[in-house]
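Before any further analysis, we paired sequence with structure tokens, yielding the entry below:
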Amino acid sequence: MILSPRFKTRVKHHAILIAATGLLLFAFLKLIPGNDITYLWSMSTGYVSIILLALTLLIGPLTVYWKRNNPVSSDLRRDVGIWCAVIGLAHIVFGIQVHMGNIFLYFFRAVDGKYAYKFRDDIFGVANYTGLAAGLILLVLLLLSNDLSLQWLKTKLWKNIQRWNYLLFALILIHAVLFQIIEKRIMIIVILFSVIMIIPLFVQLIGFNIIKSQNNFR
């Protein structure tokens, strides 16, 4: 069986991503203070997924900068996005076990009686709503990260759905900032988070300006 160059390249992508993801998870598990293993995995998967998301947002602008074009679908960006979604969804699984012990209480709270509940309108509730919305977007993007979906949806619609990545970034930004406040994270974690989020925003702005300049000269 002869394997195509593209298939070999994607296998290399995933091998590198598995190794890099594993190393990052190990590093965060060792460096983040605490003894609760569920909390440590929640934090580790959360920050690794943010790093991978930031990388997906860096690939497009850097491609424009180096090659002066940005293809509809980049295998590298797609493969990084797949691992971002996998680790991000793992973060949700661990995260819902950290605080309340009951997934229902992350989104509702009891009022005026044992069986009366209402949507949470506190900072904890907003943090969880944005996290849930981000998780749903991750799931959709993961399910569509394949050639069959691209052929079925056609280029324009598929690309428009993939642009939900920007909304995903905004939701994760809100979610993470709120949990920085709720849990009163240590300064080194706050600084690391800030750097991870600021870099892709800056590079995206550069890429946007390059594309704008190209369009002005056509």
Remarks:
- The CA atoms of residues 23 and 139 lie 24 Å apart.
